[in-house]
Design goal:
alpha/beta, D-Maltodextrin-Binding Protein, domain 2, 2 domains, ten-stranded mixed sheet, 46% helix
Length: 352
């Protein structure tokens, strides 16, 4: 009987070992990453897989709201997300993010500039949850041969009938609302429904003039001269002007929003060790340099900045000057009621 019991116990231990090994292989062998679109050099993912043996399953979506919905509804358990400031703030308040063990991210601690860690405190006060990725502002990319240089200094140019069907607006509700709210002189984080309704009515009135609502593709349409001006992230400006020397970028005189995008680890994470290895890898100088040269958004990686030549380091299309930044304000998470308002208002604006 003892022999039988011993055999059963031994068999149970073997089965347990195999079960644990199988679980470890599945968990440690891959990570699921969900990011804002066109935000990483895909070759970097291959390098990470080759160096670590961890497979990266990578998805991307155009807006923060799309990512939030995907996180809520998808059967995929994401290990890493790339999101903007106000959405990270929302997830922190909803207890949806895991604290990052920065002892596992020596490259982040060494290379991300202190200035940018301080910026991230706007939405992550204790610096527990985010690793800075890119930052910038919202402005207008325009064709200087087709758009009046004086008019484009104001957001009002986007309501000028002279440019009817030559205008591209942001296909992102918070960014789209920034424009009329700023024109009206209201806080871009207002929770006043009357003020929001005024902004909504302006966007509805503007709609007949708008050719399309786009995000990443907006830059390419202006480069190809299929449109004359587009509301874009400042990171699109450099590639835009390289693709068409007639293009210029401006942050209108009324002001705009400053955005800050970071990597975070959601509570759906099943491979935190792999996730932190990935974040540390992205902060390595050589990897961050490759990513910067592929995307050309303003990088918070000070090691990369210090390695750039003067022409790039001082290029206002890559790194906004203090005067421009002084006219920009960060978006905040405004609570579920206002989030619902924006969703409904955006449906009304986009309705045929």
């Amino acid at each position: 009987m003892k022999k039988v019991i011993s055999l059963v116990l031994a068999l149970a231990m073997v089965i347990g070992v195999f079960a644990l090994s199988g679980c470890g292989k599945e968990t440690n062998g891959s990570i699921n990453v969900l990011s804002l679109g066109d935000y990483i050099d895909m070759n970097i993912l291959k390098t990470f897989e080759k160096e670590t043996g961890i497979k990266v399953k990578y998805d991307e979506l155009p807006t923060n709201e799309d990512i939030y919905t995907k996180l809520q509804t998808s059967s995929v358990k994401y290990d890493v997300l790339c999101l903007s400031d106000y959405m990270i703030e929302r997830l922190i308040k909803e207890n949806r993010l895991l604290e990052i063990n920065f002892d596992n991210l020596p490259e982040a601690k060494k290379n991300i500039g202190e200035t940018y860690w301080k910026m991230s405190e706007e939405f992550d006060p204790d610096r527990k949850y985010n690793v800075p990725h890119f930052y910038g502002a919202i402005g207008i990319l325009y064709n200087s041969k087709k758009v009046d240089e004086e008019k484009v200094q104001s957001w009002n140019v986007l309501w000028d009938e002279a440019y009817s069907q030559r205008i591209i607006m942001q296909n992102s509700m918070r960014e789209a609302f920034i424009v009329p709210l700023t024109i009206l002189g209201y806080d871009i984080n207002t929770t006043n429904i009357d003020e929001l309704n005024e902004a909504k009515e302006m966007l509805i009135k503007q709609k007949p003039l708008v050719q399309r609502y786009l995000v990443d593709e907006a830059r390419d349409e202006v480069i190809a001269e299929n449109a004359d001006l587009a509301v874009v992230y400042s990171g699109e400006a450099y590639i835009g002007t390289q693709g068409n020397p007639d293009l210029r970028f401006v942050i209108p005189k009324e002001g705009s929003s400053f955005w800050f995008d970071s990597w975070v680890i959601p509570d759906t994470c099943r491979n935190k060790e792999g996730a932190e290895m990935f974040l540390n890898f992205l902060c390595r100088k050589d990897i961050a340099t490759l990513n910067f040269e592929a995307i050309y958004y303003s990088t918070p990686n000070q090691a990369v900045i210090d390695s750039l030549d003067d022409e790039l380091r001082n290029n206002p299309e890559l790194f906004l000057d203090d005067e421009e930044l002084a006219r920009c304000y960060s978006l905040k998470y405004l609570g579920q009621e206002i989030a619902d308002y924006y969703s409904q208002a955006w449906k009304e604006i986009k309705a045929e």
